[in-house]
Structures are given as C-alpha cells and as structure tokens.
Amino acid sequence: MEHTREPRQPSQEVNFHKAPFIIFWEITRACALVCRHCRAAAQPKRNSNELSTQEGFRLLDQMAEFGSPILVITGGDPMMRRDLLDFIRYGIRKGLRVSLAPSATKLVTKKSLKAIKDVGISRISFSVDGSTPALHDEFRQVQGSFQRAMECIRDAREIGLSLQINTTVTRHNVQDLENMAEMVQGLGAALWDVFFLVPTGRGQIADVLSPEEHERIFHWLYHISKTVPYNVKTTLGQPYRRVVMQERKAELAATAESTQWKGPHLALTDGIGSSPKGTNEGNGACFISHVGEVYPSGFLPLPAGNVRETSLVEIYRDSHIFRDLRDPSKLKGKCGRCEFNTICGGSRARAYAMTGDYLEAEPCCVYQPQGQLAGAGKDR
Asked: What whole-number distance in Å separates Cα of residue 78 and Cα of residue 25?
C-alpha cells in the first residue's frame, strides 16, 4: 500500500553516506534539440527500453526511502514522456521536492505548464546559453530555439512557477557572461545555475576553459552574487566553494566585525532548499539514466548498478564507486593534499573525462594547497 507524507526540509546535519541531497532522473533521452555540449548525446526518438511507468513508480518509492531529497526530472526532454505528470504527482505524494528541467520546445505550452504547476512542482528550469539569438541558437543548433526559450520562460513566469536559468559556460559564450547575468535578472529568475563544461557526450575538450579562466569566473560570480536579486550557484564548478571561503575570509579580515573566521555560509534559500554543505558526484548526488543505470553523476559515465536489479538505496550506499567518491582520503594529486578537499573535492567527472581516473586532481583548478587536512590523500 502506498503511504504519503508531508515533505520535510533538510536538516542542517546531513550524512551523504546515507542519503543524497539531490537526485537527477533522466526519464528519457529523446529530445528535439541537438545541443553541442549535450551530456546525453540525446536522440530524436524514445528508447523502447526506458523504465516503464510502473518501474518509475518503484524507483520513486526507493528515492523516498532516503527521506526528502530534491528530485530533478530531466532528459533528453522529459516532456516527451506522456506519464511525466504521473511521475511528478507520485513523487510529491511520496514527500520528494520535485523540480523539472524540460527542453524549450513546442511541447512546452501554457497548458502544459499550468498542468505542471497544478500537480505541485517546486521549480522549473530552462537553459539559456547566450544573451542573443545568435549565440544561443548556435549552441543549441536549432534556429529559433532562443525565441522559444524566451516564450517558455515568459509563460512559466506568468503562470507563477519558480524559475531557474541554467547556463553552460564554454569558449563559445564565456565573453557573454556579464550580459547573461543582466538577462537573468530581467527574466525574473530565482536562481542562476552556472554549469562548467565537462567534455563528455557531445562536449569537447577544446571547448573547456583553462584553469585560469575558471578561477576568474569563480571570483566574478562571487562578487555579482552579492548584488543581484537572484541566487547564484555552480554545477561542476566545485572549486567555487573554495573561492567563496577565501573571499569571505578576506572580507572578515578587512573589517572589525570579527577576528575569528567561522567558515562559509553556502546554504541559500532558493525556493526548494539548498544543501547545508556542497554536494559532489556520488557524494550527496546521484543520477539515474532512462534505462535504470545509476551513476554518481550524469557527467561521470561509470555505472554502479541498475535499479531493475538492485535497489537505488543499496547502490548509493554500498557500491565501491560511490564509497570511493565519499572518501576524501582517496583523492590523488593536489586534491588529496588540499585543505579544502572536504568542501570542494574537485569535479570527479572532469577528472575522469580528462585523465581517465575519477580520483585524480581536478584539471581546471589553479589552487596550490597550502596545507593538508587530517586524513587527506597523498600523491600517488
């Protein structure tokens, strides 16, 4: 028998060994767009081996065993599944905090958005990768996709949905970020999520920014985050947490407010709740593919099991990949020595994509460790 309960807000005491804070479920890989950086290398038609509706319900039951994680329903384009509303409704009834990340296509209409809001969705996100049609359309490789995204965003705002804008940063649009920051404000978004490219799927190493460019953007994001009316976060930009700590420490040192640095305050109120500490691939986060394979991240393509055969709870808690990723003492190179490795840890997906080893040092971080945390790994 199905049991429903009220969603719980996350406790400040979180144990990522037991439960993820956020789960991404790719309910289909089908999508009408052919974006240059697509992690999924999405396809025009649905896979006949996708999890069925009933298998999806069982998966949502397993997610609820973790408590009340955030569930991001993604794709491909999740709007291409007719049982999307059933999944949203069921997940909310089980106590999950559900967010949706559709593609900006003709499937997103005022009618479909109203139905999504009516079932209780917490947040909807759309990707905007340039402040002009030329930039965004070149990124998405579909002419008119910028205009369609703007129409979807306008409709979502008119209906009253909480809005998130996602922007993937590559060499193609890095010079446009200041314009993007201004645009996000004009669109009335609650959150700007800045993704840093991992060269997997259609993403290319040549499009990845240099470590110095990453660092410059991290510091710029911190400073604009104090002035804009929306929240700013990074995805696959784990060193941003280190930058936040360094900036805040410097600010405290420059004032008479306190002589004691009490550490970062990274949790923000953004409508669906923010984690009290940073998540990382397999460490507070996990990903389920359209065919049920479980990964530490959609950008770290190392399957740890399949929910058709093993419970998601068991895979997350017990698989050796996930356990490795939650153990900072196993990190190699400068990440293993870094005094920030328990709050940053580097992108394990980027390390894997660019070195072949998910425990190697973050390739796009300029920071040189000044000390070593107790139990941190050594060079290997």
From this structure: 10
Q: Residue ranges of the alpha helices (H) in the chain?
A: 53-64, 84-93, 110-118, 133-140, 145-159, 177-186, 211-225, 239-253, 312-318, 320-325, 333-337, 348-355
| Distance (Å, whole) CA 233 – CA 185 | 14
pLDDT in tens, the chain (380 residues): 333 333 344 444 579 999 999 999 999 999 877 666 555 555 667 889 999 999 999 999 999 999 999 999 999 899 999 999 999 999 999 999 999 999 999 999 999 999 999 999 989 999 999 999 999 998 888 899 999 999 999 999 999 999 999 999 999 999 999 999 999 999 999 999 999 999 987 778 999 999 999 999 999 999 999 999 999 999 999 999 999 999 999 988 887 554 444 444 444 333 455 666 889 999 999 999 999 999 999 999 999 999 999 999 999 999 999 999 999 999 999 999 999 999 999 999 999 999 999 999 999 999 999 865 433 444 43
Name 327's Cβ contacts closer than 8 Å, sequence gap at least 6.
none
Residue whose entry in the numeric block shows the structure tokens 């009408």: 32
The neighbour count for residue 257, using CB atoms within 10 Å, is: 9
* φ, ψ (nearest 5 deg) of residue 314: -65, -45
Q: Give me the residues paired with residue 73 across strands.
A: 25, 100
Radius of gyration of the chain (CA): 20
pTM: 0.88
Please provide residue 333's backbone torsions phi and psi, each rounded to the nearest 5 degrees.
60, -150
Task: Centre a 10 Å sphere on the Cβ of residue 320 and count the other Cβ atoms it contains.
Answer: 8
Is residue 89 exposed (0-12), middle (13-18) or buried (19+ Cβ within 10 Å)?
Answer: middle
8 Å CB contact between 369 and 256: no
Most distant pair of Cα atoms in the chain: their distance: 63
- The answer to whether the beta carbons of residues 276 and 267 sit under 8 Å apart is yes
Residues 27, 290: contact at Cβ < 8 Å?
yes
Residues 6+ apart with CB under 8 A from 93: 2, 4
- Residue 234 — φ and ψ, nearest 5°? -115, 150
